[in-house]
């Protein structure tokens, strides 16, 4: 199929590449000319503006927007709403908030334009491994785009099939290939958001476990209860046959193999919006998310030194007990 | 009554003082001679050793041990077990682990010695306000010691009586005076331990609330959603008529009145054993303690910079997304 | 002063009463005629509609809205915007979301109407104890309303003054009387929201502590480590001299005095919006709120039986270990 | 090699089988005669008692104990201490508490007996997939047993090797085959314990995520923000190309493929000791484990209806606000 990719960052460029390798025709646009040039060398048609991209596409036109969530995506969609004609399809493949999708889909719908939101996981590995996608939008538009999704997705690959899974029509056969039509507009990003929420929780479980392993070498412990464990080997051994094997563990093992102490990292951990939005969604639904929230808060905490709250604790301790906290 | 106070630190000295003011006769012993001298000036009889204290007491002898939990208390009790005679009473008024009380009470019992554990709250304010005490031990020994406890306790004071509370014999009338016979040996310290567990939780609730108030001035927020709140006034206003008024809030208000920024504190917060033991007890009982544990862990976290776990998070993020965490 | 009270529920009626007792003149309106009649007997002027209330007030008119947050408050403010004239003051004394205040204050401002948000704590006890109030709005309007706030507030009362607090102008002298001008529109409700967030955390700390006390009677524990504690007495004893004394503990002691087992409660606990909004605010500010969130999630969990997540845990356990979970 | 397997439950029998398939000679003992008979049919030599097993082994004798932690393991080790001679090796392959290993290793050492603790992961899948093992004990004994461990372990298999991992002697080459010598006695079980702690955290992260997905169909949400998601397909799609792919997700996908609603499970989730011990170890080390503890507490909570703590919350809410909680 033919489609424009708007936004050629790490993710957008790889999506364009994987699609071109699969025989699709790409019109590439980005504010960064070098990003466009790089894709052009690999076979993409270039566009010098959204308008130009719109002109170069045959109808119904497909625009795949791959930009940071928030203002960049929002303003691009606004611009495309002016350029697009009834029947055209706007795909937001970034990490937009699902309620923004719901709002935009309504605006598009009023103009006869189709809106599809794609939650895309796979990070920088997607070019090679394929992208895992959860898709929101009307059935007809999602089905129309199927050749694109099939190319981007990992496919069955070498991963064993789920025992007991049957294709009797109640399930979506695309799921086994790594993409799925989740539901109406917004649902694609909603599922991706929860994916990231889970990701935070999984990561924090490993982080805490490795902290407990590392803490065992503390000289405050009794000598025979103190172990100086090789974390690199432990991460490796858990990759085979253990209950906690996972891709995140594979990545941890690789990081530890490269640098046993991880001392190139400061320990200040960023978070993008999805962890936050997952907690909000859970609160709207009255669902308890102790682990997902703790994972997010731990990241917040990692970026601060000496919170005001901690100082207040010391102040209270001094107040009732005369405890003097050791200054920093 | 006549009793020996072993350990004249902040708490022990004030207990001795409040007892002397109530007409009791104190034999004072400590490894620090100045601590003994200071009490002697206020009317205490001095002892130069545990042996000396034992000699100066009439029978049945009462030893109130007020030492740090662990080795200091343990070795003193060992020594007193040799000095004491059947009918004598050992009181551990410190913060011992309740399972240590259970073990010691059995050893004492085999020798005809009585063992009483007293969980003592009130901090440095106890001399003035009285000490809140929860007492474990055999009924007879606890009843025998009642004059001591009554003197130490706050009494009814100016605190309003609980509506609906009736003295029909099912409740312990001492509770209204600020002390209570909780149950068999160990139960006094068990209840005090849970008290401290709750204390951690309450403190952390205030700490987080004030952090949210303070965080509202962040210049990352939209200008009209940003407030520069006077935390000193807010702590003060909540002292009157609000649902969250408490003694800990009183102390917070006083600390903030003295220093609005609390910048004399580093934010590294210590913990004593009780918070930890409360979680252990909860786990033995299969009771969920999300808040009490989070309060303890927050203190652990306050004393570290850049945990290994946080570094591992960054390493994974780099692994799957090529995210480069900003170095410290 | 003269003001209309719109909404005569538990809180609104008591506010009207306390104001009348303080010599203020009340125009009372509610959709429930009986609520109006009841206030009329106590001296209020009645209104049969918002329009009628507006007519009966002299200018500048003061409307105190005391309705459930959300639609009831929103529609009333919409109606009053039509009835009000420049210089009139709308007070939202309910539990509105602070961002709604910010939005409404802008709309009011464009019409020359003043908007004041009052976070009101004190529950059903406010009539007697006074209401603790945190107020958002422009200084001139807050100052104009001072006689109203002073009457409603608890005043200095019998609560001891904060040591170290000085009235040197840097602090708000109103704070000691139980009300404070927190800042611009929205800040009054923001502070009240955080108050409620803290309230959830405090309550959960007590709840967990009492659960640990109660769990100690479990017959799964070793016999000498098992205590059958009198929770009623323990709540009572902690009211005097302990570090964890508070108004919430007073209420707990009263509830336990009335019913030791609390078996009239199902254990399904509601939550209003403030706990949720506090977590949202914290996430906007990147502030870690482990305790406040855990307190909220525990309430969510209390209202469900057998979550899907828990079933999934059992399914995984069966998957890797053949563990068969005991059916309900 | 020749060794006795003591305890032929699910795990012990499969270990025996995998060893026999690898050419090792097994003396099988269990209190259940049918378990012994079943192994005998597959080639094991049978023993009618520990004494008999000891007699049938050539020296140095190797006893692999695979029994429930606690009393069964403890009493068997006591019995073997009497039967064993210097140079014999006792292996505890169960889930013992690591401090028990440390204690036992000392007792064994005094008698010239070698003690090795093996943390064994892999559940019922180990026969097929191989067992992931972390081993504690003296180097000489662990090296001597290497043929056994190599047979039991998964080996390199089809799992891709960790990029950057080099065998320059600083790492243990066995880790890539799925087993590792972790350190001195106790360290094998310690690492396995943390493995299970992490396992709880991972499982809970998925459980919460799926709860958020499921909760999105709630009719309390606005209609266009409500999604009726196919959880079976979503679990499946995340298996390919997503960041959160893992073996636990594979198991979840299989469980959901078999039963979309998981309604055969009650939602009451058991826990074995390791989750609890991991938290204890973390507290000893002052390491914050918000996620691992929350995962454990959620299981505790899943097994209770209407906690006392929740009732106390309702009682307080009634106390300050007159809120009447809806009875069950």
Automatic annotation (TrEMBL), chains A, B, C, D:
Q: Which GO terms describe its molecular function?
A: oxidoreductase activity
Against Gene3D superfamilies, the record matches this protein to:
N-(1-d-carboxylethyl)-l-norvaline Dehydrogenase, domain 2, NAD(P)-binding Rossmann-like Domain
Locate the coiled-coil region(s) and give their ranges: none
6-phosphogluconate dehydrogenase C-terminal domain residues are 188-323
Q: Tell me the enzyme class.
A: oxidoreductase
> What InterPro entries does the record point to?
6-PGluconate_DH-like_C_sf (IPR008927), 6DGDH_YqeC (IPR004849), 6PGD_dom2 (IPR013328), 6PGDH_C (IPR006114), 6PGDH_NADP-bd (IPR006115), NAD(P)-bd_dom_sf (IPR036291), Pgluconate_DH (IPR006183)
Recorded hits in Pfam families, A to Z, give:
6PGD, NAD_binding_2
Keyword terms of this UniProt record? Gluconate utilization, Oxidoreductase
Look up the EC number in the record and give it.
1.1.1.343
Name the source's superkingdom. Bacteria
Q: In which pathway does it act?
A: Carbohydrate degradation; pentose phosphate pathway
**Family statement drawn from the similarity comment of this UniProt entry:** Belongs to the 6-phosphogluconate dehydrogenase family.
Q: What is this protein called?
A: Phosphogluconate dehydrogenase (NAD(+)-dependent, decarboxylating)
């Amino acid at each position: 199929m033919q489609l424009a990719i708007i936004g050629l960052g790490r993710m957008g460029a790889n999506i364009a590449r994987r699609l071109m390798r699969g025989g699709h025709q790409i019109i590439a646009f980005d504010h960064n000319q070098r990003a466009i040039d790089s894709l052009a060398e690999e076979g993409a048609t270039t566009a010098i503006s959204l308008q130009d991209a719109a002109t170069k596409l045959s109808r119904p036109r497909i625009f795949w927007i791959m930009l940071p969530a928030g203002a960049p995506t929002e303003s691009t969609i606004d611009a495309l709403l002016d350029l697009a004609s009834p029947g055209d399809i706007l795909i937001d493949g970034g990490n937009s908030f699902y309620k923004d999708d719901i709002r935009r889909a309504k605006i598009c719908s009023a103009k006869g334009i189709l809106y599809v939101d794609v939650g895309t996981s796979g990070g920088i590995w997607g070019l090679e491994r394929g992208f895992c996608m959860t898709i929101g939008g009307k059935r007809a538009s999602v089905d129309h785009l199927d050749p694109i999704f099939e190319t981007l997705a990992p496919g069955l690959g070498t991963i064993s099939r789920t025992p007991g899974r049957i294709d009797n029509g109640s399930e979506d056969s695309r799921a086994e290939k790594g993409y799925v039509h989740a539901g109406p507009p917004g649902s694609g990003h909603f599922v991706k958001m929860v994916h990231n929420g889970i990701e935070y929780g999984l990561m924090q479980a490993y982080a805490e476990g490795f902290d407990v392993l590392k803490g065992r070498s503390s000289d405050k412990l009794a000598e025979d209860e103190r172990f100086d464990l090789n974390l690199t080997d432990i991460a490796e051994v858990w990759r085979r046959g253990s209950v906690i094997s996972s891709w995140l563990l594979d990545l941890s093992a690789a990081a530890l193999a490269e640098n046993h102490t991880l001392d190139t990292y400061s320990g200040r951990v960023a978070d993008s919006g999805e962890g936050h939005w997952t907690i909000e969604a859970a609160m709207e639904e009255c669902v308890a998310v102790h682990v997902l929230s703790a994972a997010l808060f731990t990241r917040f905490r990692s970026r601060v030194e000496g919170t005001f709250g901690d100082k207040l604790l010391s102040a209270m301790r001094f107040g009732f007990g005369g405890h003097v906290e050791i200054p920093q």
